[in-house]
Specification:
single chain, alpha/beta, 6-stranded antiparallel beta sheet, 43% helix
């Protein structure tokens, strides 16, 4: 223990500490004066409790911020979940009821004393009672209330003999007892512990910057995972005996049928978290061991609906705005599900929004509510699909129309007609790159001469994780790696510097913090129109666009990697199926293979031996030569291709060699 707190006693003037606590939050921008006044009014109306606890209960300040500020004011260390024990400490001296009532948790017992985490360090009664119970010096730390409660449930929530198996059996028996009792479920869902657990699940997800909450029932546990920066991360699960009540509570909040457990259900709800209104989209599906719940968090305050902040490079920004501000035409944004297409469209609409323009959107579902923009929800169950709504919208004299997705030829044809009659139409498609969206529309049945008259441009995008700026590590890229990936184009310095994730407390050990988009913007020029009329393949369209100056997603991603924004592994992972755009030899990442693409670059045949030599040099210059057999390498160089996984392995090994030099 580096900071002995055995002599700590709560201050006598608690009111003064609470005032200093509130002012510290206001100075940091974590609390507004209006929020403080609101909490004061609630407290004056008879709501008991300390001000820190009241602020977090009202959603004005997060529990983590409360703990951090209290720890600073009182000069105490902060105890996080990673500091909590894996087995109960002093279980024979303190019982679960005492720990839960005072939200206090023993962390460790050593020669210096007993380390204890407490949610309310201003509570003299709880600290003195703990000291008397254990008869040892107390090394006090400030903990986060929800984390302490979760640890108490995990460590001290056992029944009977205390064995985990007995606890699971008790939980299972409890579940069986009330699983089919709807009234009992409603009662349980309305009890304070269940309400608190659901609120904590949601508030912790928002604090963690999660986009989704996954609650998945299994035979002996309810697993909870947060999707953070595109990756699922498992968090501490609530006690299994509460799982039916927790799901019922979510149904009640989303106004869903609590008695229906056989069919999927979808709903929405809105909550005030930290004084900010947050929308949630709920999807419930029956599974083998119960109902699985996914909560999509639609926190407008956490999403920057600004084109510049989305990741558009300076070279692309002007071109995109030129297409966006055309008075009529079609602008398509393409990419797989979860690539940020809707966010880009929303940012574009806000850029176009003006009092003299009427904007109508047709969405399925509506992600965020935009002020001043007419948003329509698609409802296929009653025949309200994209095509029917679009026909109706055209009679409402709109200037700009956003179609959530062009899914069929009927919607595509109406969109083309809307663009021909002087409307600006924004929409999305699911294609791998910008050029493929043109061939997709042609394959749908859109006439080529109509497409050339209406299509202004297409944008393809992917999301990559941002490196944490607090812990990212720089390293000098090996010459073979620079040659292999064509990195010399993205930096003028003699040595190419790249960056890799490390992990720290700011990014929760992942090495990444947030995500950013990589783009390619294809502006439809006269040359592209001629190719469309010739029914050219997508790779021919892409080659022509590159010759006219289009930056591919690979180029944009590698530029961001060279600038330290992301890692090259992230770029390779999301561009495995799109054109790379090497100036020396056209290369593709198609269906997981990294191979020469003569269709993209006519000079590829003459460069094949050079690329093969470079690739062989990279493999031999790293430890990869020991792991990739020469026969496999030979097959790859003869045209079989080297998989992306092998490239990533090679890069990792090259990094290791560079680090050990």
């Amino acid at each position: 223990m580096t900071n002995s707190m055995s002599t700590y006693s709560p201050p006598n003037d608690v009111v003064a500490v609470e005032e200093a606590f509130a002012q510290r939050l206001i100075q940091r921008g974590q609390l507004t004066q209006q929020g403080l006044e609101r909490a004061t009014r609630v407290r004056g109306a008879g709501e008991a409790g300390r001000l820190p606890h009241l602020l977090s209960m009202l959603g004005l300040v997060s529990e983590r911020e409360v703990a951090q500020v209290l720890a600073e004011l009182l000069g105490l260390p902060l105890a996080l979940a990673r500091d909590f024990p894996t087995v109960a400490v002093l279980e024979d001296k303190v019982n679960r009821r005492f720990l839960s009532e005072f939200r206090i948790l023993p962390l460790a017992d050593d020669a210096d004393g007993v380390a204890v985490a407490v949610a309310d360090p201003l509570n003299r009664v709880s600290i003195d009672a703990m000291r008397l119970r254990i008869g040892r010096p107390i090394l006090l730390r400030v903990g986060i209330a929800s984390e302490i409660e979760g640890a108490i449930d995990r460590l001290h929530g056992r029944r009977g003999s205390g064995r985990a198996a007995d606890g699971r059996a008790a939980d299972s028996a409890t579940d069986d007892a009330f699983e089919h009792d709807i009234e009992r479920l409603k009662d349980l869902a309305s009890e304070a512990p269940v309400i608190r657990m659901v609120n904590q699940l949601i508030s912790r997800a928002i604090e963690s910057r999660a986009s989704d909450i996954h609650l998945e029932p299994f035979e002996d546990a309810l697993h909870v995972r947060y999707r953070i920066d595109g990756a699922l991360r498992e968090v501490e699960s609530p006690p299994n005996r509460y799982r039916a009540a927790i799901i019922s509570r979510i149904k009640i909040m989303a106004r869903l049928n609590i008695a229906e457990r056989r069919l999927p259900q979808d709903g929405r709800m809105k909550l005030a978290v930290r004084g900010t209104s947050v929308d949630f989209r709920i999807a419930i599906t029956p599974t083998l061991h119960g109902e699985s719940v996914v909560i999509r968090i639609l926190d407008r305050s956490s999403v920057a609906l600004d084109l510049a902040s989305l990741g558009l490079a300076d070279e692309d920004f002007g071109g995109y705005l030129g297409v966006l501000h055309r008075p009529h035409g079609i602008l398509l944004v393409t990419g797989p599900t979860g690539s940020g297409k809707t966010t880009t469209l929303y940012a574009s609409l806000l850029r176009l929004h003006a009092p003299e323009k009427k904007i109508v959107t047709i969405e399925d579902p509506i992600e965020y509510q935009l002020d001043g923009i007419n948003q329509i929800q698609v409802k296929p169950g009653i025949g309200l699909d994209f095509a029917n709504i679009l026909r109706s919208v055209l009679r409402h004299d709109p200037d700009i129309i956003m179609i959530g997705e062009i899914r069929d030829v009927e919607t595509a044809e109406i969109a083309v007609q809307a663009a021909l009659t002087g409307h600006l139409v924004l929409s999305t498609l699911h294609t791998n790159n910008a050029a493929s969206s043109i061939t997709r529309l042609l394959d749908m049945g859109v006439q080529d001469f109509l497409l050339t008259s209406t299509l202004s441009g297409t944008v393809a995008q992917r999301l990559v994780r941002r490196l944490c700026r607090h812990c990212r590590e720089s390293y000098v890229a090996m010459p073979e790696l620079v040659l292999q990936l064509g990195l010399r184009r993205y930096s003028n310095s003699p040595e190419i510097m790249l960056y890799r994730p490390k992990g720290c407390t700011e990014c929760h050990g992942t090495g990444f913090f947030g995500r950013i988009s990589i783009f390619e913007i294809l502006v439809v020029s006269d040359a592209i129109r001629r190719l469309i009329l010739q029914r050219a393949e997508s790779h021919e369209l892409e080659r022509a666009a590159v010759q006219e100056g289009m930056r591919t997603m690979y180029d944009d991603g590698m530029s961001k990697a060279a600038a330290g924004v992301t890692a090259i592994e992230e770029v390779l992972q999301v561009t495995r199926d799109v054109f790379i755009g090497d100036s020396n030899a056209g290369r593709c990442l198609q269906t997981g293979n990294f191979r020469i693409s003569p269709a993209v670059n006519p000079a590829a045949d003459s460069d094949r031996s050079s690329v093969a030599h470079n690739r062989r040099g990279l493999l031999r210059s790293t430890a990869a030569a020991a792991s990739i057999a020469s026969a496999k390498e030979s097959n790859a160089l003869e045209g079989g291709g080297t998989s992306v996984e092998e490239i990533l392995e090679t890069i990792e090994e090259a990094m290791l060699v560079a680090k050990n030099r």
